[in-house]
Amino acid sequence: MGKIYESLNPELQEWLGQQKVFFVATAPLETDGHVNCSPKGGDSFRVVSEHEVAYIDLTGSGIETAAHVQENGRIVIMFCAFSGPPKIVRLHGTGKVIYPGDPQFAELKGRFPDHPGTRAIILVTLTRISDSCGWAVPRLDFVAHRDGLDKWTEKQGSEELRTYRSTTNRNSVDNIPGYVEKPQA
Question: Fewer C-beta within 10 Å: the chain N or C terminus?
């Protein structure tokens, strides 16, 4: 049976830290817009407090999460146990996109290892924390994190990444404003 938590207790924090992948879902306000669900991995998720989490938003082909969060703040992060006892944890909340030019960025970035493709940090204030059984989630063996995105972003260099973000990541698939470059603090 599922449970609702008042906060991210130490046991939940430890469990979240052991997971190798998580999924982020957002949606635009317009009902005919596209719902987005993105897989995330690597060492990119952190518990900030009992009611806040953050993850590194890496440069990619889309900007849906950032666009939706900037438009309406709604976000849910889901973790599934692919090994060990079955469990699913959902973290519902209100998100904020923090770009390198934002004052909060440096403090939060220090919680993560360097990723050459870091585009922003998504900070989420949690409004609902719940778990469910996960009995139907398959068991999978973790082999390794992929390094393709890091290699690609390293090859691009900072100027090429800036150009890529300002063109490819400018708007979501529903034409909602996405990437917003801010001057470095």
Answer: N
